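Please produce the structure of this protein holding zinc ion.
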Amino acid sequence: MDIDGLDGNGGEQVGASLSMQKLRFLHHTHPTTPITQHPIIPYKRLMWLAILLSALAMTAIVGVRYLIVSGAFAAATRARHPGLYRGLDAQMRREIWWSIASAAIYGIPAGIVAWGWQNRGWTQIYTDVHAYPLWYLPVSVLAFLVAHDTWFYWTHRWMHRPKPFKLAHAVHHASRPPTAWAAMAFHPIEAITGAVIIPLLVFLIPIHVGSLGLVLTIMTVMGVTNHMGWEVFPRFMWRGALGGWLITASHHQRHHEQYGCNYGLYFRFWDRLCGTDKGLGDFTKSHAKAAARVASAVDSGGRAGVADAGSSSPRHAA
Ligand SMILES: [Zn+2]
Ligand SMILES: [Zn+2]
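Below is the modeled complex.
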């Protein structure tokens, strides 16, 4: 019999439940009768239920977080560059569905590890801010970002090999040009590679729960803004000395245009070291295409597009 009792053996489960009632009665009338002496089926079942609920809760958190952050930046795009996503409705719907599916995949390892952290003392996540020196707080955030970036660079490069690309990564590159909704638009295989890294790192690198929240926030915001089609960050973050090492939308835009370059996530270190950094992308082409889509909508009678066409001012990154 399956130890968790979820083997579909109804007779055994009913029997277990009946004897559990008897045991509870015994425990009630004779408190010295240890309830844990009963076969562990109900407890195991409860444990799996708790893990399942934790995974579902994490899925909901990741999914809602994606919808809020992508929705907010999509709204910012409509305000800043009206018309930029004009004519991309079908693509954006696809991006949202792939992203929701990815949220479910992200929720599973996160939910299991969150349950283990709360109930089994797993992970190196700590809640007492003084458990490590204060200088360690920013260091741990940086360590997570560097480790995640390294993992992303190499798995991303691998996914650009012909077979994995065709099998999985093509889903992400079907977004041409990507929008703020493309942040988690991954094939399930790619989603798994992204979903396991933070749950693995919390076992290896001690991190305060607040710092972990910051890492997840940076991860979410950069995932969205890198695909937004325009540069939301101040110029010093993508130009000059600091910009030479950081990745923002201008850098990732080139990856979506040329494929075989600019593989990194947060930092340009690996791209520069491995000769795959081809510099910043140029939003001119995608903004001109957006303006053309708006113009054709106007031609076909969409008078509402006039205002969009006038205010869609391409902003060049390079
Ligand atoms: Zn991308
Ligand atoms: Zn790629």
